[in-house]
Write a structure and sequence with these properties.
mainly beta; 11 strands
């Protein structure tokens, strides 16, 4: 059983910052890709950013230059530093782990709400 526990969501003003964390535990042989997805009301879930165990990253175009993904392999933890937040970043953010980049794996966190006000 794999468990992903997210923390760090909340509210921020436009231009502000938030940092999300996700710790993975359970039966984990090796986590290749850790990532963050988000889903806004009425929209499909989309990739925000992901990172391989070797440090290669992918970002959704609208967050490039504002968000930074990082991970601590020893702690099976992934982080998402979100700067220069915009109201359109408002969504539920989900942690995910899987075998390849840009494709969600089978394991999801419970989601954490991020709300950005103008």
């Amino acid at each position: 059983q794999v468990r992903l526990v997210e923390s760090g969501g909340g509210s921020a003003q436009a231009g502000g910052s938030l940092r999300l964390s996700c710790a993975a535990s359970g039966f984990i042989r090796s986590i290749v890709v850790m990532g963050w997805y988000r889903q806004a009301p009425g929209k499909q879930r989309e990739l925000v950013a992901d990172i391989t165990s070797g440090g290669s990253t992918n970002y959704e175009n609208s967050v490039k230059g504002r968000f930074t993904i990082s991970r601590d392999n020893a702690k099976n933890t992934v982080y998402l530093q979100m700067n220069s937040l915009k109201p359109e970043d408002t969504a539920v953010y989900y942690c995910n782990i899987g075998p390849i980049g840009r494709v969600p794996g089978d394991f999801w966190g419970q989601g954490t709400q991020v709300t950005v006000s103008s």
